[in-house]
Amino acid sequence: MVKVDVPIPHDLKQVGQLARKIETGGFAGIVTAETNHDPFLPLATAAQSTTRVDLITSIAVAFARTPMSLAYIAHDLNYAANGRFILGLGSQIQPHITKRFSMPWSRPAARMREFILALRAIWCAWYEQERLAFRGEFYRHSLMTPFFTPENLEYGAPRVFLAAVGPLMTQVAAEVADGLIVHPFTTLEYLRTVTFPALERGFEISGRSRDQFEISVQPLIATGHSEKEIASEKLAVKQQLAFYASTPAYKQVLDSVDLGNLQEQLNTLSKQGKWVEMGELFSDEYLNHFAVVAEPQHVATRLHTKFGDFADRTSIYSKKLTPQDYYAIRKKLSKLA
Fold this sequence. Notes:
alpha/beta; TIM Barrel; 8-stranded parallel barrel; 13 strands; 14% strand
């Protein structure tokens, strides 16, 4: 695990300066997420302020857009970054797609596979002058004229990473994407019994090998510079875990550590808005299955022990980590690799 990425705030007034500091600090990538802000605009700003780091959406919601609209955005960012942009995609869950974004939802793994293939077909039309004739079950793209084809084509198509939890979406990542973004809500048991076998099935279908693919982990980290800070962070991470675990589709992750019985309780409490009570269902023992709990000086060692055998890159974040902590973790992970 030699590549260490860090998230950047979405405040566009600060992004340029922070991006330069991140690059100077030796980090491999800058990461944005699509939560309460657009994930692409900060990276457009960061592209103008950096020359080396990868610029990564982790993640942008694929099903909130069409393959064509996303193809243009990704092309422009990759050009601005001189080929350093990585388009990290995720499906989100059905209520957000249908009720928040007002977009269609069905068979998410099959739809995502087709979405990425459509992206690649559009890019082939641009970069390799192939005729655009993509006709799938969910998406159809069959019109592309020179007037609508970008002219700045020297950097080609960006890499595409896919976030996945379930075995079908994970297999899709290995079939058609360039990398897997491992969801923060996972366990080593789940990775060994579900994620890795699904990747192998995808590699077999695509005819690719593991060394042609990247795995990125986004661990939940509970840390701090005092017992009080660590206790506060443990509570916050437990509440985040409870939020994830309340999603019925993620029950299989709980099952991997014999905690499947929590899912129904958490789902009921979530509908009642009892977020604090949800977190209280996670004991410290449960927490250790899902998160890295350590003082800052031990975080790198714990990350390496847990993920070093298979992860190619990691994104690290905690409110309690100082800039000096981030640099120290990055340096130690580089030495441990």
